[in-house]
Amino acid sequence: MPARHAVAVFALLLAATAGWSESVHREVLPSGLVVIVQEFHATPAVEVRVSVRAGPLSEGPLLGSGASVLLQRLLVSSGSAAQGADEVKRAIARLGNEFNATTTVASTSYSLSTVSDKTGDALALLASMLSNYQYSQLDLQREREAVLAMPAPTPEVLAELLLNSLLYRQHPARLPVTGTPRMMDQLTVDLMRRYQAARYTAANTVVTVVGNVNTNDVRKWADQAFAHYSVGGYQPATPFIEPAQYAPRYASGQLELPEQRVVLAWRSEAMEHPAQPALWVLAELLGAPGHGLLDRAFAARSLPLPVTVSNRAPIDQAGCIAFAFACAPLQRADCEQTVRACLDALVKDGPSVDALASAKAALRRRLSERATSTAAIAEGLASWELAAGDPGFGRRHREAIEATTADDVVRVARRYIVTDMDAHACTVVLRPGAESLASGSGGTVQPPTGTLAPEIVDLGKGARLIVRQDQELPLVHLRLGVGGGAGIEEPAVAGIGAVLAELATRGVEGRSRAQIDALCQRAGFDLSADCGPHALGIALTCLPEELDRGLELLLDLATRSSLPAAELAQVKAITEQRREATEGAWDERLLAAARGALLGEHYGARSPQGSRDAVAGLDRATILAHWQRLTVAPNLVIAVYGRFDRTALRATLDRLLASHAMRDGPRPAPLVAVGPASSSPMSIGFHPAELAAVALAWPAPPLAERGRDEAA
Predict the structure, then answer these.
(1) d(CA 586, CA 580)
(2) Burial (CB count within 10 angstroms: exposed 0-12, middle 13-18, buried 19+), residue 365
(3) Could you tell me where the beta strands, DSSP code E, fall in 519-645?
(4) Which one, of 629, 636, 570, 577, lies nearest residue 607 by Cα?
(5) What is the enclosing helix (H) or strand (E) of 201?
(6) pTM, full prediction
(7) Total domain count for the chain?
(8) Is 81 helix (H, G, I), strand (E, B) or coil?
(9) Which residues of the chain have pLDDT under 50?
């Protein structure tokens, strides 16, 4: 009687929409237990399903340990409160020997397929199983070893795990449901029992029965079966709000595959969101086998088929719409461009009347097919109850699919995919590896860059190196960060950071500006500098093979910048031009006025280019002293992101730091911030344009306080 453990963390919405008819009965018993019954007399079969709100979403401090999966396996394999493991196996056999247990991000479910006269026995067995606290440390160790010994995930499952790690930054779905070995080792029997006592309560449990039954009988049997079940109280899962995605995210792996597999995905909404019906129609329009828009577009360009389009709509987490295909490495760019072009065309022209009708008919057919299975109906009713607190939500969802218009499809395609398409994309690439195929091993997986914390390395004297690898990226981005900016500038030298940002890249000891420009041109460097309220930065982008020369130039600029006096007048003029351009733009003036009204004398209200008089009065001696004040070792951070070898990077840095001495000294102290005198300031300005503009602004926490809130 092995328990089937679901590694995939997405609930299939099609399964969840099939389970509604007018005979559905929902009742909350005095204990808080939710009982859902659908009488389905076309078959003698009965599906009994018990779902508990116990998954990674509710693990709290145990997140990442796989506690929900291990508890599910313990309850199944260690018997019940009244019977041993062998007796439970025999009882399941007498009931039909069709038992399954699954764990997803939001819940754990236990289901038995039986016949009508055994329904009461099935409920009693499941209730006794879920009330079992008799497992031991040996049982826990056995199940832990079994989870760790699971076969390597299939390419499809691995792609889904990597995709989850890209889609989510805060939500528990970013981690495998089974947890990680190191966290799993921390679990004890006492922790497991406390977790079970907190989550396995009547108010967190949904009992669903579908089949040839009588509703009143089921209610009586459920009340009796769960009479000794822990009552507890309803404990809603902690809501996780995902931060907005501002840049594309990548993850890659190397497996024993005949060809490269690619998944493109864009985040959408949870299963009960009003946009979901249109998203399902969109996925069907694009991905219908043989006649979907993408299959036709790929065939027209002689690209490999098929293209699989899936709308993933889980419980209590944002979903996604994903496009998967297999191709040769040289075809990947053409395939991705075809997906994007097809989406752009759909948003521009909309779907045809026939295509929209075909998509809705196909969805209706699949929903109807699932409505003939007691197991699928029970799964659907339980899913909607867990997601929306209403098993009848599925009927309304089906009606919304039927009512979806072409405008609805265009709207969701534009909102969730086409708008800022590149910035919001998540890409997973599974590559075939010659070494893996030759060795017969299972292959290797590169950890997704967005899910791992950057590595922070102490370079000595307080200087820090921050590195994050992304082998999917064909470039390396370097950045020298120097704490400073307007936050440490007295009014008399306001704008000195902006001048320094421009001047620091114009020469180093032994190399003129012309020589630096020539090096950048030969090596393909993109060199730039900027200055904000809290830091001055010098950024360099290079090809991976030019990383050593890029690092050398960056360290030259940090420790040997000559700040050429001959360039100072031109740099001042450029700084003044930027300030005037900013002041001349009505939107920038509006924001500056809002900052001034809200922040008063705070340095955050100043222009990054400072004042005209302060910049004009700067001389090289003042600028050099300020630069030396900034470029002390504790105030320097070097960041490296992209495709590189960590070991080679550290060896190069060690070699370069031996010849580039960093100065000791304290970090510059920030100015004391002074806010506005009034708690409700208002500022009115005028500009020579036809339209008026209004900006409303509210104060936000300081950076340090916000960081503490996010960490907590």
Answers:
(1) 12
(2) exposed
(3) 526-531, 535-542, 636-642
(4) 577
(5) none
(6) 0.64
(7) 3
(8) coil
(9) 1-22, 434-451, 677, 704-712
